[in-house]
Please model this.
Amino acid sequence: MSEYIEHDTDGVSVGLVEKKFFTFADPPETMILESNARLGPITIAYETLGSLNEDRSNVILVLHALSGDSHVAGYYSKDDQKPGWWEIMVGPGKGIDTDKYFVICSNIIGSCMDPYGFDFPVVTIGDMVRAQKALLDHLGIKKILSVVGGSIGGMQVLEWAVRYPDMVVSAIPLATTTRHSALAIAFNEVARQAIMADPNWNKGKYYGAAKPNLGLALARMVGHVTYLSDEAMRRKFGRRLQNKNDFSFNFDADFQVESYLRYQGQKFVDRFDANSFLYITKASDYFDLRRQHGNGSETEAFAKAKARFLVISFTSDWLYPTYQSKAMVKAMKKNNLDVSFCEIEAEWGHDAFLLRNERLSVLINGFLERNFIELRK
Amino acid sequence: MKQPIQKQSADLKRFDLQVIASWIKPDSRVLDLGCGEGDLLLYLKQNKGVTGTGIENRESKVALCIAKGLSVLQGDINEEVLDYQENTFDYVILSQTLQQVYYPERLLKSLLAIGRKVIVSFPNFSHWSIRMQVLLTGMAPKNEQLPYEWYNTPNIRVITLKDFRKFTRDQGCTVLKEVAINTNHHDTQGHIVSFLQDWRATYGIFLIGKGDRQ
Model:
C-alpha cells in the first residue's frame, strides 16, 4: 500500500511530527495474549498530530494496515523525502482535520520483530487493540471521538468498537471485513510460503545475517496484485512492454506489469521485515469478529457495540468485496445501531482507500464533524 | 383531513415534503426511503429533533447526505427494510417511489412491520390531464409528474387515489390521514385539493396505520 505515499499536491501538511515510544507490560505484569502466551515488556511507537482540546473530546485514533506504521502524516524533518502514509487524508483542513482533532496513530504489535524472530508469540487483532488501549490509558484518553482505519486497520476499528464500546463514540471501518474469506486467506498463505521457502529465512532467525529478501519480495508481489483490480491493471499497464518493442523470448520482465511488480517487491524489502509480514498476515487471517465476540453470529458480535458507524467499501475491491461490508451493516442494523454505508465507485481495487478521493475525504469530514458536535452537546 | 399546513422552512422546497414534515411528531424516529439528497431528513433533524435514517441507491446522493451529517445507507429499499426489528421507527416514509416498486404489497407489509406508521405519496394517475390525453389522443399519457415515454418510464405502477384507498383496505391497514395536493411545475408550491380530488390532485399523500387485522 505505501507505494502511494506522496506529497499532498495542495502543499498542505500538518508539518513536523515526532515519533514517541511507550513501554508497558513490564514483567511480572506481562500481557496475556489471546494465544495464552505472555508478552512483556512491550514498546510501541506512536505519533500525535494536532492538539488535545480541554474536554478531551477531539481524539481520533487512526489504525494502520499491513505495511503502514505510526507515521500517519507529516514529516520527521525538513529534509524528509516522504510524508506519512495517509498525508492526503490527515492534515489541516483535510478529511481528518488536524486543526480540529487530536490524531493518534501507533504501531501495531507485531510490526517489529527484531530481535525476537520466530520466538515472538503469534498475536491477534484483539491483542493489537489491547496494546493500543494501554497507550490511550497512558495518555489519559477516556473517550475516542472516532476510530478510523482501512483493511487490517479496519479490523482493528471493528475490534475497538465491540471490545471497548463505552470509549468509542464513532467508528469508520474502510475497505474491511469481519473475517477473511478463503480467497483472502489463500493469498496470504501463498505470500507466507514464499517467505518461508526462502533459505535465508532460516526459521525466522536471520537477524544479523542475509535476509529472506527474495521470499519477501515475492510475497509483496502476490499481495500487491490483490490490492489492485482488473480495471486498474488494464489501465495502468495493459499489455504494454517495458522498454522494448518486442518479446525477449527469455524470462526477463517483458511486460510493464512484470517490471512493476518486481520493482515493488524489491522496494518493499528495504523497509519491511519478513517475520512481521508473517505475523501480521496471520493475525488478519485469524481475525473473526463472529467467532471472537458473537458465538458465530455476526449480529451477536455487534450486540455490545454502541458507536455510530460509517462503513465504506469500494466497487473494485475484490479482496474485501462490498458484500462483506453489507453483512456487517446488516448486523449493525439488527442491533439498532446508527450506521451509514456508502460503496464508493473507485477503479483502484482494495488500495482505493489510500488514494486521493475527494468523495472519501468529504464523507469522513462530514461524519466526524457531526459526531464532534453531538458529543459536545 | 383538512388540516392547515404550516409554512415550513425555506430549506424544504417541495410542497409535498412540507406536508409530510407537518405530520411528523417532534423527537420521533424516521426512516426515509429513497431519501435523495436528504432534504427532508435534514429538515426534520434540525427543526423537529428527529432521529432519522435514509436509504438511497445512488452513491453520489448517499455521499452528499453523509457529508451533511445524516445517517444514510446505500442500497435497494426492498432489501434494506428487511433488516430492522419490529417498530424500530415511528414513521417510515415512501415518498414518490411507490409507482416504481415491483412488489408494492410485499413492501408495504415490510414497512408496516418496522414502522408504527407509514407515509406514502405518489403521483395521481387519475388527474384530469392524464384522463383527457388517453381519451383524446389514445396514447400513453405524460404530464409534469409522469414525464416519461411508456418505453423508458421507471414508473411501472399506475396508481390513482381510489386505487390506493382500495389497496389499503385490501391490505387490512387503516388510513389515518389523507391529503390530495395540486402542485406547480416545480412542485415547490401547491395547495390542498378538497373538491374533485381524484380529478384535480397531482399527488396523494397518505398516513397509514397498522389497522385492526394486524
Q: What stands out?
A: Chain A has a mean pLDDT of 94. Chain A touches chain B at residues 308, 310, 326, 329-330, 333-334, 336, 338-345, 359, 362-363, 365-367, 369-370, 373 (CB under 8 Å).
